Amino acid sequence: MSDDPRRHVPRTDTLLADPRLAGAGERLGRALVKDAVQRVQQRVRGGEVAPDAAVEAVLADLPPTASSLRPVLNATGVIVHTNLGRAPLSGAAVEAITAAAGTTDVELDLGTGRRGPRGEAAIAALLEAVPAAEAAIVVNNCAAALALVATALGQGRELVLARGELVEIGDGFRIPELLQSTGARLREVGTTNRVALADYRDALGPDTGAVLKVHPSNFVVRGFTRAVPVAELSEALAGTGVPLVADVGSGLLRPHPVLSDEPDLQTTLADGADLVLASGDKLLGGPQAGLVLGRADLVQRLRRHPLYRALRVDKTTLAALEATLRGPRPPVPEMLAADVDGLRARARAVVARLVDAGIDAFAVDAGSRVGGGGAPEHPLPGAAVSLPPGFAEPLRVGVRPVVGYLEDDRTLLNLRSVPPSADDDLADAVLAVAAAWT
Questions:
Q1: DSSP letter string over 211-260?
Q2: Are 82 and 170 in contact (CB under 8 A)?
């Protein structure tokens, strides 16, 4: 009986009383630590872990935070990757979230001690970035912004929309179904591939609540096509009292030299749209949010609608949005602007470390994408680290997950979507996988 391994398994209360695990319990919660203790005890029973190494094994088994979400290195080459949380936040935005996480003056005027306007500074930063807008509000995503507009302007009325703009967004959600769920009636105009100004004019009537323009951001129709630009549509609607609402989708504030065909908020408003809608977590590079900018009277109408209270964002989103707008350039614009020669040099540097360790690696040119439903046909040249195909899965399930992709029977780690500061982490992850095989 003295050799029975169960007699040598450290007691749960003994392990939890260890100062190192007690400290982890204060940081992560006792329940998480206790679960890790029980897993390690089972490994001790199976002979995988020595009894005197149990505390170290528990510490190694603990998650970095009390959340199940894990930091991932995005080496897919898709800059705004929906499955990986879309835009990575800037350091300034992360610091702003931390500062706002506790008690803050989100709705308090510290000077008077009275209630103050919610998110005033974030709204001011947004208006400074898009001077064509008179006013703005922020809700929790762009679909929420569209639902709020459709409810406030179109409930029980008609929303005029081109057939070619009845798009499907992520996870099977469709714009027409979202609009109809608000109680609005859709008045489709034109055909799938062509719509004319006369189609819009003929659809206007006493029940028209608004005319919508939805940018088909995740697909492109080519060939025999025609669309009506915002400027022409705005001119035709002048004097009718019918507002023109444009959902530009991707959150580009101003024209971008790389993405010349992508609509932006400033230009769309300057062309005559009464309201523009966009996402905050795509090309803007900020937190998930739906941005609504435009005419002050319409924005106020949305702000006073009962649905707005259900869709507004919290203090941490407001803090991150303001820091994104006022702080240094966030990662998404940095990745868009990355120099191809610089990406190639980074790939060669990572490969040099791996080759020195005997790994079959080399640098290759590789295309990348904007992602997130933005600029679907705009290729972005870049560079990647090429590895044998067997690296893909162990990298993805490693301690610091790295998500790459398989192409031509090789694992590619595309550096367009990896910040330069993470190149060493990327190499370390590959080295760790290789070491586990030896």
A1: EEEE--TT----SS-B---HHHHHHHHTTT-PPEEEEEES---S--SS-T
A2: yes
Q: List, for residues 180-234, the tens digit of each pLDDT value.
A: 999 999 999 998 889 899 999 999 999 999 999 998 766 667 777 788 999 999 9
Question: In whole angstroms, what is the distance from residue 224 CA to residue 234 CA?
Answer: 24
pTM (predicted TM-score): 0.90
State the DSSP code for 93.
H
- Could you tell me the CA-to-CA distances from 403 to 26, 72, 111 in Å, in that order? 32, 7, 49
Task: Indicate if the pLDDT at residue 1 is higher than 50.
Answer: no
Cβ-based burial of 420 (10 A; exposed 0-12, middle 13-18, buried ≥19): middle
Nearest to 420 by CA among 339, 354, 312, 366: 339
pLDDT digits (tens, 9 = 90+) for 220-243: 677 777 889 999 999 999 999 999
- The C-alpha atoms of residue 362 and residue 68 are separated, in whole angstroms, by 34
Helix (H, G, I), strand (E, B) or coil at 408: coil
Residues 6+ apart with CB under 8 A from 297: none
